[in-house]
Amino acid sequence: MADIFDVVADATRRDILAVLLERESTVPQSGGEISVSEIVAALGTSQPTVSKHLKVLRESGLVAVREEGQHRYYRLDRAPLETIEDWLIPFTASDAAADAATLAGADSHDEALNDEQRAFASKIGKAFAETAHQVTAAVKRK
Question: Given 50, 76, 102, which residue is the final one in a domain?
Answer without folding.
Answer: 76
